[in-house]
Amino acid sequence: MMNHFHSNPFRLAGVLLLSTLLFAPAAFAQHGPDHPGMGNMPGMHDGMHASGGKGMHDKGRHMAPHNAAAHFLQMADMLNLTDGQIASLRTLRDDWVTKHSVHAAQLAAAQSDLKSALHAPTVDKAGAEKALVTIGALEGQLWRAFVDQLAEIKGMLDKNQRARLGEMHRRHR
Length: 173
Known about the structure:
The chain is mainly alpha-helical and 173 residues long. The protein is 64% helix and 3% strand. Helix 2 (9-22) crosses helix 6 (125-155).
């Protein structure tokens, strides 16, 4: 069976554009003292993404790949984290910044390029396609890193902490 996306590059571009708009990237906004680096780009506010917009929506909230360790550090008291868990989370947080801050900046730049291509007097299809390919690759990379980090974090929680986390999620739905 023929893959319709490869046979029609504009269909692929449309799907990628729609995906980009629906699943906007990189929640790297600064959320306090335990969340350095990611999102400390000029003009960013709490809750804003590198793209300047909101991410994938989950019942009115945005969801995008981000430094999950920073959020867990903010919830340390609520989850009753141990000193050892806090130290591990700080290491994970700092590793995320080291490994992914360049990718987040590249993603923001590619999104800016896409916006420019779309807002030109005539749509710059070649520019948009180039930006879409870059955005797709970077978002995929950042989502994988987020999933890996979150799995590691949840793996270090004990039964009671996981129950508290589940209750916090249920309350915020």
